[in-house]
Amino acid sequence: MNNAKRTKNLIEMYSEDLAANLAKEDAISEITVFWEVPSHLEGKNIAKFTYKRKGENMIIGERWYDPSLR
Fold first, then answer.
1. What is the pLDDT of residues 1-58, one digit of tens each?
2. Which of 4, 8, 21, 34 shows its CA 20 to 30 Å from the CA of 70?
3. What is the spatial distance between Cα 33 and Cα 28, in angstroms, rounded to a whole number?
4. First-to-final CA distance of the chain
C-alpha cells in the first residue's frame, strides 16, 4: 500500500498520461477522470480531474482530492 503522498503523485501522473493520450483523438474536447483507491477509501472517489482541449493538448481544469490525500 502506498502512503497518501505517493498515491496522490501516482494518480496525477496517470491522469496526465491519460489526458495526453486522449488528446490525440480530435473528437475529444473534455475529459473527466474519477479515481477510487480502495486501500485508502473503500467505495468512494478519492480524486477527480477535469481537462479541456487547448489546441492539440489537454490542460488541467479542476483538481479535487478527498481529505484523506490532502
1. 799 999 999 999 999 999 999 999 999 999 999 999 998 999 999 999 999 999 999 9
2. 21
3. 13
4. 17
Number of domains in the chain: 1
> How far is Cα 43 from Cα 26, in angstroms, rounded to an integer?
33
Cα–Cα distances in angstroms (integers) from residue 16 to residues 4, 5, 44, in the given order: 18, 17, 21
Output phi, psi for 26, to 5 deg. -60, -30
Range of the domain at 62: 4-69
pTM for the whole structure: 0.90
Cα 4 to Cα 56: distance, rounded to the nearest angstrom: 32
The span from the CA of 54 to the CA of 37, in Å, is 29
> What per-residue confidence (pLDDT) applies to 32?
98
